[in-house]
Amino acid sequence: MEWEVVIGLETHVQLSTKSKIFSGASASFGAEPNTHACPIDLALPGCLPVLNKSAVEKAIRFGLAIDAKVANRSVFDRKHYFYPDLPKAYQISQFELPVVIGGRVSFQVENPDGSTYQKTINLTRAHLEEDAGKSVHGIVHGKTGIDLNRAGTPLLEIVTEPELRSSAEAVAYAKALHELVMWIGVSDGDMQKGNFRCDANVSVRPKGQKEFGTRCEIKNLNSFKFLQAAIDYEVRRQIELISEGGKVVQATRLYDPDNDETREMRTKEDSMDYRYFPDPDLLPLEISDEWIEEVRASMPELPEKTLARLINEYGISEADALQLISHRPLTEYFEKAAAKLKDKKIAANWVKGEVMAQLNAAELSIEESPVSAEQLGDILVRYSDGTINQKGARTVFSAIWEKKGDKVDELIETLGLKQISDTGAIEAAIDAVLAANPKMVEEFKSGKEKAFNALVGQTMRATKGKANPAQVNEILRAKLAQ
User: Fold this and answer.
1) How far is CA 148 from the centre of its chain?
2) Which of 49, 233, 305, 420 makes the best surface tag, with the fewest CB within 10 Å?
3) Treating both helix axes as pointing N-terminal to C-terminal, what angle do 423-436 and 449-462 enclose, rounded to 10 degrees?
4) What gap in Å lies between CA 353 and CA 409, rounded to an integer?
5) Beta strand pairing status for 154-160 and 144-147?
6) Terminal CA-to-CA distance of the chain, rounded, Å?
7) pLDDT of res. 361
8) Looking at residue 422, what is its pLDDT?
9) Torsion-angle region of residue 55: left (phi > 0), alpha (psi -120 to 50) or beta?
10) Collapsing DSSP states into helix, strand and coil, what is residue 464?
11) What does the buried/exposed string (b/e) look like for 109-134 if buried means 16 or more CB atoms within 10 Å of the residue's CB?
12) Residue from 14, 12, 10 nearest 199 by CA
């Protein structure tokens, strides 16, 4: 039997606000346990929540980025369940009236043969909610500690329609969403800190069947590798179970990466089990059209528009442009470096090549680059106008990287890197090389192209690498043709 996989993702994105969603406590990561938990986060009697305006603005920003409807009126609800790190025994979330409704995300999916296809999936909603705390195991033998620093951290939960049909599509969507939330500045997307984590709802059905199969939800997948592995395992498990005459039971499962398997955590609750009702301590959230337009005016250019602009206006290939827009600070660095260049492809090649190689080796981000975008631009201007050759450009780049100087033109002079572009000087050097290498000249004239490259090399050595290579090639060919 042929099977069809049906996947929907719920993604919890931690919003990059300074304080929590309903209190003034710090939302920063890495503090000593329970030092960022205030009376509101602890649910002490008499403490009332106050909504964080910045979290709402980030939700609006996301809604605009995915072409969704931003609700003029939304409501916060209480979602009841017990868990040790949930102090109130309920979570403030949104249910029937979320802040963002609909929307879509487009992305590229790679086939096993390396080809790609475009896919667009629809989103059901995105709603604001607070995060729970964290259970900490193993610090005291046989006991579990509770760290409430994370309790109340603002989350945007983004829910797709069940339109994904493979683990590859799920991962491609998650990567596109991850890039988008960082691009528009609503989250830093740090998966190691749990700032971007996915729950995957997975079911299978015979190909051609309209009704969905029974789904299982795999919780808290915080890496793309685990997301793909967990879905692949769950698909195999469900197909084998049904094929052997069993039935899939709706449940919440966890993925165990050590054993590459999912395990049942609890039988899946439905919405009625959470006893949702509007939170009596929070007024409905009213968002005016004027506020939405203010947020729209502050939005950066979205990735698809940047991609089209780099291809059409900068003359960069789609593959290179996709690489350059993978991270907004990288795009900004490239555009600043390319600003003074007629041929923007030179900057693209350098950023993708030399710059990224050095950053990766030093384990630095583009924001931490010792060579600024403006300095790289100045280096490439001098390379483009023939002042220095490629080797000289790399030497200047390395000198700035190693903090041996910060002024490009001064370094070119100090390091003696200026190219010889004087035609007379180059002709004299070539004449001397031709006179000293008659055998190479004869080999070239008999059709051996390698001899030409050898003569170029001899000329460059004679000028200590300072001759303009383009001029050397042009003048040498002219002389050999005589």
Assistant:
1) 28
2) 305
3) 120
4) 23
5) unpaired
6) 75
7) 95
8) 66
9) alpha
10) coil
11) beeeeeeeeebebebbbbbbbbbbbb
12) 10
Query: Cα 113 to chain center, whole Å?
Result: 24
Q: What is the pLDDT of residue 464?
A: 76
Q: Which of 148, 129, 138 is nearest to 79 (CA)?
A: 129
Task: Specify the amino acid at residue 450.
Answer: K
145: exposed, middle or buried (C-beta count within 10 Å: 0-12, 13-18, 19+)?
A: middle
C-alpha span between 443 and 367 (Å, rounded): 52
Instruction: Return the percent helix, strand and coil in the chain, to nearest 5.
Output: 40, 20, 40
Q: Which two tokens stand for residue 209?
A: 């069947």
DSSP state of 185: T
Structure confidence at residue 454 (pLDDT): 86
In order, the DSSP letters of 324-381 are: HTSSHHHHHHHHHHHTT-S-HHHHHHHIIIIIHHHHHHHT--GGG-SS-HHHHHHHHH
Chain position carrying tokens 């002389």: 479
- Return d(Cα 92, Cα 101) in angstroms, integer: 19
What is the residue whose two structure tokens read 């043709």? 481
- Provide the pLDDT for residue 118: 94
Give the model's pLDDT for residue 254. 95
Cα 417 to chain centroid distance, Å, stands at: 38
Residue segments in the chain with a per-residue pLDDT below the cut of 50: none
Burial (Cβ within 10 Å: 0-12, 13-18, ≥19) of residue 221: buried
Helices (H) and strands (E) in the chain, counts: 16, 17
Per-residue exposure over 427-452, b if at least 16 CB sit within 10 Å of its own CB, e if not: bebbeebbeebeebbebbeeeeeebb
From residue 239, give the alpha-carbon distance in Å to each of 163, 219, 236, 261, 365.
Answer: 19, 20, 5, 14, 43
Which residue bears the tokens 């606000």?
Answer: 17
Looking at residue 417, its pLDDT comes to: 86
Contacts of 383 (CB under 8 A, 6+ apart): 346, 389, 390, 392, 393
DSSP assigned state of 420: B
Question: How many CB atoms lie under 10 A from the CB of residue 479?
Answer: 15
pLDDT for the residue numbered 171: 98
Using CA atoms, how far apart are residues 406 and 294, in angstroms rounded to an integer? 40
Find out whether 147 and 4 touch, Cβ atoms under 8 Å.
no
pTM above 0.70, yes or no: yes
Identify whether the C-beta of residue 136 lies closer than 8 Å to the C-beta of residue 67.
Answer: no
